[in-house]
Amino acid sequence: MFGGRKTLCLISGIVVSVWSLASSLPAISNGADFVGNSGCKCHMGKGCFEGEEYKERLHSNTWEKRLKGTPDAENPDCLKCHATAYGEKIAEVGKKYLPNVQCEACHGAGSEYKKLKENFQGKGKDAFKELLKKDPFEARKVQFDAGLIVAGINGPATVKEQCLTCHWENKDDKNKCPKTDKVMDYKDYFKKDDHRDEDEIDVLIKKLSPEDKKKWAALLPKDEILNTPLKPKKKE
Ligand code: HEC
Ligand code: HEC
Ligand code: HEC
């Protein structure tokens, strides 16, 4: 299970550095396949924070609302920001991109992550949930090893860096949408897009001893913005 970890880190290291040189490819690739939001359905159901709120956000409509039915619907210059996984490995045969800014645009290709949630160590769909209860940090490590990306922890060093792959803070930015002069006000945009809630890990992080903080350093938030207050948990 953990044998592949070094390779995975190595691969993602290379991908990240290539990606920061070529700002034309914002989607994060981690060697897995992009499965689309249907693969994230545990998070998308009713009662689930991410799902309910996401559907009302502009990210869920960046292709439908802005490109669909226009001459730019398939334009790579637009798809790199208004769609997900353009030019990447998509599980569904024949698809060149996934419409809109989907979960995987920020959290990385999800096929391996999905597999472990559905059938961790071949022990069925409850096995991962059990691990999550028994040993949340180990569970998070397993998720990250499977390619799950969280900006400010194991992905882009800061959340803002991730946002800036598609947004810009001044009008002269080269990496800017040709159709609007609106600029990102980071704090305001983060607040609007914030879908964190207080989960098992967040509660435990607060209680970690200094030794455990060292042990789990790779899994802890490094970006200050992630220490801002969380919304209370809504799930289950
Ligand atoms: C660098 C990323 C990026 C690229 C490339 C890009 N867009 Fe955008 N686009 C955005 C973002 C981000 C916004 C929203 C800006 C905001 O609200 O702060 C936006 C907004 C828009 C809007 C709404 C403008 C308005 O009136 O509010 C349209 C329409 C649009 N884009 C079309 C396109 C088309 C067509 C292309 C290709 C020719 C394109 N975009 C390329 C990121 C991009
Ligand atoms: C625009 C980028 C972006 C998109 C799109 C996105 N996320 Fe996130 N997500 C983030 C960031 C940044 C965080 C904050 C990191 C953290 O929680 O530590 C986060 C955190 C999370 C968390 C952890 C929440 C918590 O309680 O700590 C979950 C679960 C999550 N996202 C699920 C989703 C799902 C499901 C979707 C699609 C419906 C999605 N995300 C779409 C950027 C994104
Ligand atoms: C893959 C590209 C992409 C990434 C990464 C991304 N965005 Fe966006 N975002 C867009 C596009 C495209 C729009 C334009 C939506 C529209 O107007 O159609 C948008 C719109 C928004 C809006 C709505 C703005 C408004 O006018 O109300 C907010 C808020 C936002 N993004 C926040 C963020 C934050 C915070 C991050 C980083 C965690 C982020 N985005 C990362 C592409 C992206």
UniProtKB/TrEMBL annotation:
Provide the GO MF annotations for this entry: electron transfer activity; heme binding; metal ion binding
| Domain of life per record | Bacteria
Q: Which residues form the Cytochrome c domain?
A: 89-224
Q: Does the keyword Metal-binding apply?
A: yes
Secretion signal span: 1-22
Query: Transferase among the record's keywords?
Result: no
Which keywords fit this entry according to its UniProt record? Heme, Iron, Metal-binding, Signal
The family database entries (InterPro entries) matched by this protein are listed as:
Cyt_c-552/4 (IPR023155), Cyt_c-like_dom (IPR009056), Multihaem_cyt_sf (IPR036280)
TM region positions: none
- The name under which this protein is listed is Heme protein
Q: Which organism is it from?
A: Candidatus Brocadia fulgida
